[in-house]
Design goal:
This protein has one domain: Alpha/Beta hydrolase fold, catalytic domain (Rossmann fold). Strands 3-4-8-10-9-11-12-13-14-15-16 form an 11-stranded mixed sheet, with helices on both faces. α12 (about 345-355) packs antiparallel against α13 and α13 packs antiparallel against α17 (about 500-515). The protein is built from 17 helices and 16 strands. Helices cover about 35% and strands about 15% of the residues.
């Protein structure tokens, strides 16, 4: 009996020993890091994955971080990239700095041998804001589902996306995509380090929303990211419109971005790269909000983004991985899409922007009254910016890829918005993080049930490349012309491609633009 008790005690001691607890210390390629265990999840915050992009490294590709001695404490978020007051509006209390290339990890693994699937999260924010420290993006709930969640930071605004002729000449392959290069570097860090946190570098799924979703589409297109992930989840953002400057265009061409960036710096008194790199970071951040400042975002540089993404898919020049993509039904509602528009204003907007295809666009968007014109203006913004891109991606993947595409349409009308669901409506449900800021409505049991279903689909996809699993309505692979889009939000079930007649009119417009 005594021997049995000793054996039992030894077994219990093994179960409760540090080796059997969630990982709280790990060795990275730059040095050891010490996190903390919170509710059974190992949390590491503020791990440097690149050198501070300051001084001579401003507007250069990210460089490896300097190694450190000893164990670095990583229990607080690193600084967010400079973006002004909007960070606090998103609920983050993190400091802001040009030194902002840090990574965060939530892991349920007990040992590095667990080899769990990994989600690498990319925040949105229009490429001029966003941070890993936004409470909505806390990764613990994903970790509790058996995944390692990694949150990647990247430079935003002019720090991440300024292009000029001098910067393009300096690099030898264009400029303006430093934020995307940060994400590639972050994914390389995941590839090289995540096994020490119990993740499997061969089972990485990239996931993003809004600008983060658009970045996901560009990483799937980029040869620089080849082999760094095996799946992609994209929520409300993709780059499948023709590049250039015209109505509903995709990213600007390099020459366009170069000219705008050069003029912007000149207005700030910086006519050389030396002068530009000497400008205070706070001055650059403030100046991006000035009237007439360019909107900073990805650039068609032929290097990070090798070309028009719709053509890349047709040519088979993309990273062929399973994708889960979709959008919400009323994206523009949160972008001032409720302003009253008259029929004359709407018609003028379309005729000025859509050239020879204006009549087809006008026929697809009713505008006989102020009510119709206002709704159509909002719908046109939703569908050119978001919906058409997401379903173009699903279609191109289904037609040109070996890996499957899964497409969703999130529609959950509320008293506040009876017309549908605004941009980002599904994101807190996917993360299962209720927003407790003052003035935010508490979740209902229905909200929690929907959150459980959505997160289950996302978790299943990250684990297997297929969102389906026990207890969930069947989600079919997307096939153009068939009832294979998953309606999420109210009645979770497959539906035909929503708004197909309007999306066809937009596809015809884009085809005309590409042929010019």
């Amino acid at each position: 009996m005594k021997q049995a008790l000793v054996a039992l005690g030894a077994a219990l001691s093994l179960l409760t020993s540090p080796a059997q607890a969630a990982i709280s210390q790990a060795q990275t390629t730059a040095g050891a890091v010490q996190g903390e265990v919170v509710d059974g999840i190992g949390e590491f915050k503020g791990i440097p994955f690149a050198a501070p992009p300051v001084g001579e490294l401003r507007w250069k590709a990210p460089q490896p971080p300097a190694p450190w001695q000893g164990v670095r404490k990583t229990v607080a978020f690193g600084p967010a990239c400079l973006q002004g007051a909007i960070l606090a509006q998103m609920g983050s209390t993190a400091a802001q700095s040009e030194d902002c290339l840090y990574i965060d990890v939530w892991t349920p693994a007990n040992t590095p041998a667990d080899k769990l699937p990994v989600i690498a999260w990319i925040y949105g924010g229009g490429f001029n804001s966003g941070a890993t420290s936004v409470p909505m993006y806390d990764g613990a709930n994903f970790a509790h589902q058996g995944l390692v969640l990694v949150s990647l930071s990247y430079r935003v605004g002019p720090f991440g996306f300024l292009a000029t002729p001098e910067l393009s000449a300096e690099s030898g392959h264009g400029s303006g995509n430093y934020g995307l290069l940060d994400l590639v570097a972050g994914l390389r860090w995941v590839h090289d380090n995540i096994a020490r946190f119990g993740g499997d570098p061969a089972k990485v799924t990239i996931m993003g929303h809004s600008a983060g979703s658009m970045a996901v589409s560009e990483l799937v297109a980029s040869p620089l990211a080849r082999g760094l992930f095996r799946g992609a989840i994209a929520e409300s953002g993709a780059n499948f419109a023709p590049p250039g400057s015209f109505a509903a265009a995709g990213v600007p061409l390099q020459a366009e971005a170069d000219a705008r960036g050069k003029a912007w710096l000149s207005a700030l008194g910086a006519n050389t790269l030396t002068e530009a790199r000497a400008l205070p970071a706070e001055k650059l951040e403030a100046a991006q909000h000035d009237k007439g400042a360019p909107r900073f975002g990805p650039v068609m540089d032929g290097y990070v983004i090798p070309g028009d993404q719709a053509l890349l898919w047709r040519q088979g020049r993309f990273n062929d991985v399973p994708v889960l993509v979709g959008s919400t039904s009323d994206e523009a509602a949160v972008f001032g899409g409720r302003r009253t528009v008259t029929p004359a204003e709407f018609e003028r907007q379309v005729r000025d922007g859509y050239g020879a295809k204006a009549d087809e666009i006008l026929a697809a968007y009713p505008h006989e009254t102020d009510v119709q014109a206002t709704r159509s203006a909002k719908n046109l913004m939703t569908e050119t910016t978001f919906t058409s891109n997401m379903f173009a991606w699903a279609t191109l993947q289904a037609q040109n890829g070996r890996a499957p595409a899964y497409a969703y349409y999130f529609h959950r009308p509320t008293d506040a918005n009876p017309e549908g669901s605004g941009h980002g409506s599904e994101v807190p449900l996917v993360f299962a993080n209720e927003d407790h800021r003052p003035g935010r409505a508490a979740w209902s049991d229905e909200d929690r049930a929907l959150s459980h279903e959505l997160q289950s689909y996302w978790v299943n996809f990250a684990k297997t490349g297929d969102p389906n699993g026990p207890g969930l309505p069947k989600w079919p692979k997307f096939q153009p012309g068939k009832i294979t889009v998953m309606a999420l939000g109210k009645d979770n079930k497959p539906i035909p491609l929503p708004l197909e007649w309007r999306l066809k009119a937009l596809a015809n417009y884009y085809a005309w633009r590409r042929a010019r």
